[in-house]
């Protein structure tokens, strides 16, 4: 008597399912890492935009260049006068008022105040941002440092090879600190 086998045994099906589950877990983990990396990339792009934005504002208000220097966390008080240039606007601001308005608007941008809130927290902008501006008025050299909190830990917190101004900006010792530095000259 010859027995002919058609189909799969239960053991073969179980082994196939285990292999399939392991593959699906790998794909799910890959998806999670890709989403985290995408968010980190977005944060880096945002930091670049915010640093470029304040440099552009500084170029338009060269008389107050030195006074832009400082450390900012986005919690500046509203300066009371809006120096926005709008069609039909009748507001004339001094250079100092323009600087105060620029810094206020910039801080509101990088904390994401224009975005919807979730539980009282802003969902736009950077996570725990701190920005530092250094100005050498004699040469016109400007350094803008944007720091924020990333998702994953980094080996050096983003400041291993940086100079002391960059290292001192933001929360030192935070392994999740990310840093973006823009150095330029405004003449």
Automatic annotation (TrEMBL):
TM helices/strands, residue ranges: 7-28
Report the InterPro entries cross-referenced here.
Answer: N_methyl_site (IPR012902), Pilus_4_PilV (IPR013362)
Keyword check for Transmembrane helix, yes or no: yes
Keywords of the record: Membrane, Transmembrane, Transmembrane helix
Q: Does the keyword Membrane apply?
A: yes
Its protein name is Type IV pilus modification protein PilV
């Amino acid at each position: 008597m010859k027995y002919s086998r058609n189909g799969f045994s239960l053991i073969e099906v179980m082994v196939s399912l285990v292999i399939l589950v392991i593959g699906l877990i790998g794909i799910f983990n890959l998806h999670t890492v890709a989403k985290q990396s995408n968010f980190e990339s977005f944060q880096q792009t945002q930091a670049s935009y915010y640093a470029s934005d304040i440099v552009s504002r500084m170029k338009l208000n060269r008389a107050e260049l030195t006074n832009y220097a400082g450390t900012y966390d986005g919690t500046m008080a509203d300066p009371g006068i809006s120096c926005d240039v709008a069609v039909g606007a009748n507001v004339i601001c001094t250079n100092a008022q323009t600087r105060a308005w620029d810094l206020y608007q910039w801080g509101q941008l990088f904390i994401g105040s224009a975005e919807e809130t979730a539980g009282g927290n802003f969902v736009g902008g950077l996570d725990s941002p701190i920005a530092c501006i250094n100005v050498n008025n004699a040469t016109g050299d400007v350094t803008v440092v944007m720091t924020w909190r990333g998702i994953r830990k980094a080996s050096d917190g983003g400041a291993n090879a940086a100079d002391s101004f960059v290292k001192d900006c933001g929360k030192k010792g935070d392994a999740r600190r990310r840093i973006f530095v823009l150095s330029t000259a405004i003449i």
